[in-house]
């Protein structure tokens, strides 16, 4: 019989709700979110932290859930795409993505939206250059980025109101 | 997926060092994990034990040494923390610029400067800058601490002078004098630079002579390298004279490095690019003396 | 990747050939070669080669086959193996050309090294340098062995 695999308990909040999870030390946040908590909005795409499809916010900061241990999130607040809207009220970034048709297949979209939301919290009225630089780690194969850029610019105006 | 491992939480660098000594090659120090977890996921490295350096506390501070004015960077400071640090903005804005261009926002939030330097990937941004600034690194083991000039720290690709049980705790950057300007140029289309050139130009108080020049290049060979030939060609000469003969000065770079071909470019291409970017970096640094380009 | 190394030794062609024909002994000149043994003498051999770059370790158990033996001019062999831990496989073709050269012999070591798998994708630049270093040390080790032969044989 194989030796028992080590297990640890971590307490964290996910989308505002407290959780105490029994995880292996080697558990990756993306797997805990998707498999243990059923939050499949976070996507595994490149799996090497380059594409941004797995972006989640940890204490407000974007991280690659595919290369981030769940252990690291202990005592922290994790926000996934499922947690962005408040009930029926979508986040201004989500609304802007809808208004500007800033997605096609939608696979990169959760990561894009979360990264954009974090950007606008850090820089409420970013220049085009600032948006492009911040978002350069989020890749999209469908849209050609123009509509995404528009949506983020629109959202930055919307948030000011 | 990662193979199972245990996580250890030392309270001090000495404890971390002892743990590594006791656990041996099955254990690795773990900071941000942006390099380590990646290669572990790919199965290229396997560790049954990770020693979390972040539980030590106090290794992520950014400050200034009151006596020497040196900038002291905790090894566990993230790229993002350094990029946004008011201390760095005031004392060493060039470093903030370099950290801004590292990888992507997610890697910057989690990855640490110390982890980056210790992993010693040939295509990394901070290495050449610290080389050109003649920074020192502090390595702590169970036996004590030692300070090492960064020129001796980078040994080869993925290899540094850090002994397996030593923890890199701090990077110290000497203060630039009033007549020194620095530039970092990064070239490439991917997250890692194809090559990076860091240059620190010191002029005489009259700003007509090159008092000192330090140039370092990364991504061209297997470790960040100083271009001593280029430095020697410029040192002690009139600024205008060097500016007029930049072709030759840049050309001296060819004697300093034997470029390695890789996915970022052939040896020939890299050799040609080194000359181009050394010239541009020199021009950029000289321009900073006129107040243009700050 | 292709490499060509050349060594000159003050030893007659026949004696250099005798050394080459002792394939086990040649295999042991390969840097990182831990074991070498004959399975079918002059036809098939087994060896294990280990290398390290920083923290990365590779270990290739090699199956070595003699493809061509044209005494005393040419020996061609192929070594192949796989490192499952690294998800990578290695194939090396060694073409050893021997000729008389005034005072002794000239041995040209022509090798083709093919690496596939994770290491090949991720380690391209380093692999080239490593392989070049390995072939240089291989040639040097053979030269030392042959010179020792020369001194012993007198």
Biggest sheet of chain A: strands side by side, in what order? Answer: 2-1-5-3-4
Give the tally of β-strands of chain A: 5
Helix proportion of chain C = 25-40%
What structural class do the secondary elements of chain C suggest? alpha+beta
Structure description:
The complex is a heterotrimer of chains A (161), B (294) and C (154). Chain A is of the alpha+beta class. Chain A is built from five helices and five strands. A five-stranded mixed β-sheet of chain A has the order 2-1-5-3-4, covered by helices on one side. In chain A, strand 3 and strand 4 form a beta hairpin. In chain A, helix 2 packs across helix 5. By secondary structure, chain B is an alpha+beta fold. Chain B has three domains: 51 residues, Uridine Diphospho-n-acetylenolpyruvylglucosamine Reductase, domain 2 (2-Layer Sandwich); 112 residues, Uridine Diphospho-n-acetylenolpyruvylglucosamine Reductase, domain 3; 108 residues, Enolase-like, domain 1 (2-Layer Sandwich). Helix content of chain B is 34%, strand content 24%. Chain B has 13 helices and 14 strands. Chain B is globular, with a radius of gyration of 19 Å. Chain B starts with 5 loop residues before the first strand and ends in a 7-residue tail after the last helix. The mean pLDDT of chain B is 93. Chain C has 154 residues and is an alpha+beta fold. Chain C has a single domain, classed as 2-Layer Sandwich (Alpha-D-Glucose-1,6-Bisphosphate, Chain A, domain 4). Helices cover 32% and strands 51% of the residues of chain C. Chain C is built from four helices and seven strands; from the N terminus they run βααββββββαα. In chain C, a hairpin with a 3-residue loop joins strand 4 and strand 5. Chain C is globular, with a radius of gyration of 16 Å. In chain C, 29% of the residues are buried. At the A-B interface, strand 4 of A face helix 2 and helix 6 of B.
Topology overview:
The complex is a heterotrimer of chains A (161), B (294) and C (154).
Chain A: E1 8-14, E2 17-23, H1 29-36, E3 55-58, E4 61-64, E5 77-79, H2 92-99, H3 109-122, H4 128-134, H5 146-160
Parallel strand pairs in A: 1-5
Antiparallel strand pairs in A: 1-2, 3-4, 3-5
Helix pairs in contact in A: 2-5
Chain B: E1 6-8, H1 13-23, E2 27-30, H2 36-41, E3 49-52, E4 62-64, E5 71-74, H3 79-84, H4 86-91, H5 93-100, H6 105-110, H7 113-119, H8 126-132, E6 136-141, E7 144-149, E8 154-156, E9 159-160, E10 167-173, E11 180-187, E12 195-203, E13 210-218, E14 225-226, H9 228-234, H10 239-244, H11 246-251, H12 253-256, H13 267-287
Parallel strand pairs in B: 1-3, 2-3
Antiparallel strand pairs in B: 4-5, 5-10, 6-7, 6-10, 8-9, 11-12, 12-13, 13-14
Chain C: E1 2-9, H1 13-21, H2 23-27, E2 33-40, E3 44-53, E4 56-70, E5 74-83, E6 88-101, E7 104-117, H3 118-122, H4 124-153
Antiparallel strand pairs in C: 1-7, 2-3, 3-4, 4-5, 5-6, 6-7
């Amino acid at each position: 019989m194989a030796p028992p695999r080590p297990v640890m308990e971590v307490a964290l909040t996910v989308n505002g709700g407290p959780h105490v999870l029994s995880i292996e030390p080697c558990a990756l946040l993306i797997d805990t979110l998707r498999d243990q908590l059923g939050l499949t909005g976070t996507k595994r795409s490149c799996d090497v932290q380059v594409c941004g499809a797995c972006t989640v916010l940890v204490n407000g900061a974007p991280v690659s859930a595919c290369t981030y241990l769940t252990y690291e999130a202990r005592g922290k607040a994790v926000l996934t795409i499922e947690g962005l809207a408040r009930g029926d009220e979508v986040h201004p970034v989500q609304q802007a993505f809808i208004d500007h048709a800033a997605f096609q297949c939608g696979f990169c979209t959760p990561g894009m939206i979360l990264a954009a939301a974090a950007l606008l919290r850090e820089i409420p009225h970013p220049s085009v250059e600032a948006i492009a630089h911040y978002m350069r780690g989020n890749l999209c194969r469908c849209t050609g980025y123009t509509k995404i850029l528009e949506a983020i610019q629109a959202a930055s105006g919307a948030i000011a109101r | 997926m990662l193979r199972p491992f245990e996580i250890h939480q030392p309270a001090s660098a000495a404890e971390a060092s002892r743990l590594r000594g006791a656990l041996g090659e099955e254990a690795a120090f773990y900071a941000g994990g942006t390099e380590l977890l990646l290669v572990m996921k790919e199965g290229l490295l396997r560790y049954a034990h990770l020693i979390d350096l972040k539980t030590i506390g106090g290794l992520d501070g950014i400050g200034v040494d009151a006596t020497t004015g040196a900038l002291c960077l905790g090894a566990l400071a993230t790229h993002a923390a350094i990029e946004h640090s008011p201390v760095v903005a005031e004392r060493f804005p060039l470093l903030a610029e370099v950290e801004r261009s590292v990888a992507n926002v997610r890697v910057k939030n989690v990855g640490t400067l110390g982890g980056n330097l210790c992993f010693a990937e040939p295509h990394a941004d901070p290495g050449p800058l610290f080389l050109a600034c003649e920074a020192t690194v502090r390595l702590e083991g169970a036996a004590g601490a030692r300070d090492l000039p960064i020129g001796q720290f980078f040994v080869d690709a993925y290899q540094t002078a850090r002994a397996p049980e030593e923890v890199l705790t701090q990077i110290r950057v000497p203060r630039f004098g009033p007549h020194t300007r620095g530039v970092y140029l990064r070239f490439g289309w991917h997250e890692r630079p194809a090559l990076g050139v860091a240059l620190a130009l010191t002029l005489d108080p009259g700003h007509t002579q090159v008092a000192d020049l330090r140039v370092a290049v990364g991504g061209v060979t297997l470790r960040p390298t100083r271009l001593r030939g280029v430095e020697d060609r410029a040192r002690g000469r009139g600024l205008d004279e060097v500016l007029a003969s930049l072709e030759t000065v840049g050309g001296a770079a060819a004697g300093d490095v034997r470029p390695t071909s890789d996915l970022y470019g052939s040896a020939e291409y890299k050799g040609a690019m080194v000359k181009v970017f050394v010239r541009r970096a020199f021009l950029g640094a000289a321009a900073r003396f006129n107040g243009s380009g700050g | 990747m292709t490499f060509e190394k050349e060594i000159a030794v003050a030893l007659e062609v026949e004696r250099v050939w005798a050394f080459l024909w002792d394939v086990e002994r040649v295999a042991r000149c390969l840097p990182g070669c831990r074991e070498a043994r004959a399975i079918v003498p002059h036809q098939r051999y087994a060896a294990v080669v280990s290398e390290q770059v920083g923290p990365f370790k590779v270990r290739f158990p090699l199956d070595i086959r003699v493809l061509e033996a044209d005494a005393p001019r040419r020996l061609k062999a192929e070594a192949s193996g796989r490192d499952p831990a690294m998800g990578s496989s290695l194939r090396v073709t060694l073409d050893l050309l021997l000729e008389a050269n005034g005072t002794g012999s000239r041995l040209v070591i022509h090798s083709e090294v093919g690496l596939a798998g994770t290491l090949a994708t991720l380690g391209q630049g380093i692999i080239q340098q490593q392989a070049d270093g390995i072939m240089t040390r291989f040639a040097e080790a053979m030269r030392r062995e042959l010179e020792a032969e020369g001194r012993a044989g007198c």
